[in-house]
Amino acid sequence: MPYFIYLLRFLFGTIIGSFLNVVIFRFRGNEPFLTASHFLGRSRCLFCKKTLSWKELIPFFSFLIQSGKCRHCGKRISWQYPFVEFLTGLVFVFLPLSFSGWQVFIWLAVFLVFILIAMIDYRLKLIPDFLHLVLIVLGLALVWGISYFGQPDFFNRSFLGHYGLLFGKIENIWLNHLFAALIGGGFFAAIFFLSRGRGIGFGDVKLGTATGWLIGWPDIALSVFLAFIIGGAWGAAAMLLKIKGMKDILPFAPFFIIAMVLTIFAGFDLLDGYFKIIGI
């Protein structure tokens, strides 16, 4: 029975992921994020414009059955479709195992926004302001909920456990998350202004502020550090493989989202492993 429940969660998640794909592909960047065109109208092939039947719209599985090609024109379907659907399915399977009660719903919404931000920034190299606002509202709900239903101690709030003390301890949850928002946004703002917008985009400044408010201090510090490590490694590998050049722009949000996920699920383990390696 548990495995059947996991399967149902996965299938439901792929349906939500299919909807996210519609929003991601229909958003053009020069319009409000939420418009009727993002939700209404039949799905069509991006190449031949043929209206797709229900058989071609089964999340994840239609891509596999059709060997990743349009049945009408034979063009390759973007890898983003199965990737987002599969990823969203995994979110619905594993996230309820890590969070409980009312927090599950908040973190499910957070991770859906993470997927939207990462994929839109990857495609268009911009992040809609609306999604920053949603993260701030979800962070507000999270902080208020923890305060109202019982505020756990510093160690249980931070995904870094007792290693969070290395970064300083701010016990009050409201001050903690406000400080994290200022640090996250301020750090990226400094890079933005010092590089005159060439080192990082202003959307990343807003993202740093919103996610700092969401996960608090010191978790935002580890997330920022990991983001630059992951982004730097990807950039170096892309140049070595001649996929990207020195002047190419790399969207930073996907790396930052990956770093956030690593902090949330493995922040303590990463720091614990690091200190064991160096013998501390």
Helix-and-strand structural type: mainly alpha
**Fraction of helical residues:** 55-70%
Catalogue the unreliable spans.
none
Global geometry? globular
- Mean pLDDT over the full residue set: 84
N-to-C SSE string, H for helix and E for strand: HHHHHHHHHH
> How far is it from the N-terminal to the C-terminal residue, by CA?
44 Å
Biggest sheet layout: none
Helix segment tally? 10
Strand-residue fraction? under 5%
Radius of gyration: 20 Å
Number of strands: 0
Structure description:
This protein is an all-alpha fold and about 280 residues long. The chain is about 65% helix and about 0% strand. The chain has 10 helices and no strands. The chain has helices spanning about 1-25, 60-65, 80-100, 105-125, 130-150, 155, 175-195, 200-215, 220-240, 255-275. Helix 4 (about 105-125) crosses helix 10 (about 255-275) and helix 7 (about 175-195) runs parallel beside helix 9. It is globular and about 60 Å long.
Chain-wise SSE layout:
Blueprint (H helix, E strand, L loop, with lengths): L1 H25 L34 H5 L14 H19 L4 H22 L4 H21 L4 H4 L15 H22 L7 H14 L3 H22 L12 H25 L3
Helix pairs in contact: 1-3, 1-4, 3-4, 4-5, 4-10, 5-8, 7-8, 7-9, 9-10
Keywords:
280 residues; mainly alpha; 0% strand; globular
Short structural description:
The protein is mainly alpha-helical. It contains 10 helices and no strands. 33% of the residues are buried.
